[in-house]
Design goal:
Strand order of the largest sheet: 3-2-4-5-6-7
Radius of gyration: 23 Å
Helix content: 25-40%
Bound molecules: 5'-deoxyadenosine, iron/sulfur cluster
CATH topology of the largest domain: pyruvate-formate lyase- activating enzyme
Mean pLDDT: 91
CATH class of the largest domain: Alpha Beta
Distance between the termini: 51 Å
Amino acid sequence: MSQHTKSEKDFSKYFQPPSLTDAKKRGKEDIKVHYDFQIPDEDKELGKDKHYLIQTYGCQMNEHDTETMKGMLEAMGYTGTEDRQEADIILLNTCAIRENAEDKVFGELGHLKTLKLQKPGLILGVCGCMSQEEAVVNRILKKHAFVDIIFGTHNIHRLPSLLKEAYFSKEMVVEVWSKEGDIVENMPKKREGMRAWVNIMYGCDKFCTYCIVPYTRGKERSRRPEDVLAEVRDLARQGFKEITLLGQNVNAYGKDFDDIEYLFGDLMNDIRKIDVPRVRFMTSHPRDFDDHLIEVLGKKGNLMEHIHLPVQSGSTEILKKMSRKYTRERYLELASKIKTVMPDVVLSTDIIVGFPGETDEQFEETMSLVKEVGFDFAFTFIYSPREGTPAAAMEDNVPLEVKKARLQRLNEVIATFSSESNQKLIGQVVEVLVEGESKNDANVLSARTRTNKLIHFVGSRELIGTIVHLRVTEAKTWFLKGELIETPLQKTV
Ligand code: 5AD
Ligand code: SF4
């Protein structure tokens, strides 16, 4: 653990920055689960008449961490605001996955400096994945000394104490544990709307060579099944309509238990029996996607027919360089096995183009895999070197122009697939969860199909939060249009 204050001039003497070398030497020591989290009574008034604003970057894991931080701040009496001028605390919950995510945060810190000069009492904090990177922490210490708190992804539960410290001492507080954290249960969470995220595990042990996550989020550790199931039951009782189980690699769930044999398929099988209308999960790794899980997902019910299954590349050689631990053939086999058990499944994926040394032929293998699997949507990225990862040391001989051209071709083929698959739905009846008014027209409602496709239809606001049936009338590239039908006469999808 490292902690120090702004008044200390030579930070290096007092502060051990998070270290990638240490992160890689993760031990086998037991992970402790803490059930005693509490906000002390004396801190519950600390935020009276004060406002907070949390700006979140990156993935759902960060969004969910933000819900936890909001929960803690509200338990301390703070009120949320969207107005920076009104805020007494601004936290940036950052993402480190690609360089442009980091650039955005440094740009934002520049703007916040001006605000801080106008309002010296403002507390500014940086948390999330960037604060787990030693280069970033050092840069903030040297160039953005007006920041009041930096804390890491393993230190979220410490926010109330760190804040108090920052308030009363008005000195920079840095607390980043480079060693993975334990599991802290019972932190308050501020959830909004009808959909809720539930962490089932933390961290990642896959060490894909391009990825910073195993270093910023620590080693794989699963929440105990009884804690996950209790949380899902409680959310169901509260009336949430959709639950998304979260983990960097949900398929590794339970592999770290040494007292019980209970894997992701077992968890899904138990969650399937809970009375909550919809259950999804993010993100899968093809390597650990086992037959039992496929069999459980095939039972459908509240388990949705959408699987996000990142492939990253269609070339076995590139997959090897990425250390993905599966081949092109193995991925194709898995996709076809899933489709056999769930013929109406929609598969989506993540793809990186321009990995160091990726040849034209290897990129064409990605294109052909995409066509063979027929993904309905995909998140596509140009490779971004991340300091300290093995890929960052590989020779990157693919010119940026080539990478951009590959990305464009890939996006075009994915758009074609999405459009074609949407066209096929015209005339069919789909079961949807009505999520809210559409952004552009208050008379139009937005909903999601079981396969996670966006669909708009005209309907009354009272339908928001309910599950209804729509007939698909029009197909666009990335969304559908439909009309409400009272009772489904045809088979629904
Ligand atoms: N460069 C580009 N994309 C990356 N991803 C992860 N690391 C990098 C990187 N260094 C992508 C992967 C992953 C998604 C969340 O982000 O496709 O699945
Ligand atoms: Fe990163 Fe690979 Fe872990 Fe996903 S599985 S978080 S890409 S290291």
